[in-house]
Design brief:
Blueprint: E1 2-3, E2 15-20, E3 26-30, E4 36-38, E5 40-41, H1 48-57, H2 64-71, H3 75-87, H4 103-108, E6 110-120, E7 122-134, E8 140-146, H5 150-159, H6 162-167, E9 169-173, E10 187-190, H7 198-210, H8 225-242
Parallel strand pairs: 6-9, 9-10
Antiparallel strand pairs: 1-5, 2-3, 3-4, 6-7, 7-8
Helix pairs in contact: 3-8
Amino acid sequence: MVVRDACPACGSPLFKKNGHIHNGKQNHRCTTCGRQFVGSAAERIISHEQRTLIEHLLRERISLRGICRAVGVSLTWLLHFMVERFAACPDHLHVRLPNRPTDVVILQLAAEADELWSFVQKKANRQWIWIAMDATTRRILAFHVGDRSRDSAKALWAKIPVVYREQATFHTEQYDAYTGVIPAERHRAITKKARKTNHIERFTNTLRQRVSRLVHETLSFSKKLANHIGAIKYFICHDNLTKTTALPV
């Protein structure tokens, strides 16, 4: 049990009573920074094993409140932990680039691009997930969350590693937004019957099944765009790390 005689945020001893919380405990409010807190709180340490389990559960199709019930942590603690883990994900998504741009690599580099519909807070606020994948290694090269315009296609293209932008052949569906963004000599706009985008379409289906925020008719939808992007990035980074297919050399 921790007895507080000062604000836990700024350390100020100046605070006053501010009603009661849901369980009847006396609530206080710091007159310096405005932080609200209770005078006594249980000191509970989340073990390393619990944190590791939560990291795994954040990549599975389970709601945040479901994780709280399963592991026995508070929603407030989980939200802070989740944001920390999302922020720790690197922008390069753990992509493994070819070692050297040899002629063999130039002939073999191929990529696929596709879009996935999602929403944040309400279905009227549509957010499209643009994804580019290496067709050989199945690793995600880049992703972008935005609208379904050519500007989002440009944003995705800018995030793709330079070696792929300069050397890879990209297969996409026949969607006009890619026209003029991907160089024409390396862009192949095809139909689904050509089966040149089946790998990335399989991955978008995996996203639907594994990330609860993307499930159709879900109650676990994102309330904040930053957390929506963070959850997708968190899953992609781990997925890239676990892919074992080798790059051409």
